Automatic annotation (TrEMBL):
InterPro entries the record matches: Znf_FYVE_PHD, Znf_RING/FYVE/PHD
Region annotated Disordered, chain positions: 102-134
Biased composition (Acidic residues): 122-133
Coiled-coil region list: none
Name of the protein in its database record: MIP18983p
Signal peptide positions on this chain: none
Length: 266
């Protein structure tokens, strides 16, 4: 026996005849008379003409669903509009960059191109980069001053010929690892001794350990470990450290700030 879902049903909520309708959302039943529907409308619903009946409870849900779909469609349209604006800005920026090709200031030697030198991008130590750049500027200014003095006062000097060329050696690239959740009493020397002893590394001077000091006092100690490529991935492996130690690639805050500014520009 079917049950009428309408409040105040005149038939004690019991459906015993064929004059009833069914909600297309929740499949609840109701008398045609209780639903306020005429016999002709019932025939149209049963005839699958596309006409459907909705109970009072589902009418509220249907209204809320309609508003939700409309709001969602509006938000998606706005999101696509923002994405399109960002894409257009990136396209303009790419066009501007490609229209101004960068040419090398000095001619590139074929011998030097086959053996590229390591640049400052191979290291994560910003202080070493700044010191090296300052040293280069001072060295260039000193050479220019000497050239002026020689031009006005000195006689030409014949440089000695070297039979054996000087072999240049590059500093191996360094990469940084962030190590944290150590006790506050841990020192830089203790952490370095742990790494060197566990790896049996023959050149301890290649490993640089610096403690990170925060403005707010914390119950844990964090360190920045600079290491060459051969041992970098070994140190980066969590299995290399005791339990509960956090380790991951060190990320400079300046790079994060640059990414944030780029996103704001877009």
């Amino acid at each position: 026996m079917l049950i009428c879902c309408m409040e105040g049903c005149e038939f004690n909520n019991s459906i015993s005849n064929d004059e009833h309708v069914r909600c297309w959302l929740c499949d609840e039943y109701a008398h045609a008379k209780c639903a306020g529907i005429t016999d002709s409308v019932v025939e149209m619903i049963e005839g699958r003409t596309g006409l459907k009946w909705t109970c009072e409870t589902c009418r509220v849900v249907k209204s809320q669903m309609g508003r939700f779909m409309k709001q969602t469609r509006t938000e998606i349209t706005e999101l696509f509009r923002e994405v399109r604006a960002v894409y257009e800005k990136l396209a303009k920026l790419e066009s501007h960059i490609t229209s101004h090709p960068q040419k090398p200031i000095y001619p590139v030697d074929s011998d030097s191109s086959s053996n590229p030198l390591h640049t400052f991008e191979d290291t994560n130590d910003d202080k070493e980069v700044e010191d090296a750049e300052s040293s280069i500027v001072q060295h260039n200014s000193t050479n220019m001053q000497k050239a002026k003095i020689w031009h006005h006062n000195a006689a030409p000097v014949v440089l000695p010929l070297h039979t054996n060329p000087v072999i240049l050696k590059a500093v191996p690239p360094m990469k940084a690892v962030f190590v944290s959740r150590l006790v506050t009493s841990t020192t830089e020397d203790a952490l370095k001794h742990y790494i060197v002893a566990k790896l049996s590394y023959p050149n301890p001077d290649d490993i640089i350990v610096r403690k990170i000091y925060n403005k707010q006092r914390r119950k844990i100690a964090s360190f920045k470990v600079m290491a060459p490529d051969p041992i970098y991935y070994t140190i980066l492996n969590p299995g290399f450290w005791p339990k509960h130690i956090i380790v991951h690639e060190f990320v400079n805050k300046s790079l994060l700030q640059t990414n944030v500014e780029f996103i704001k520009y877009c």
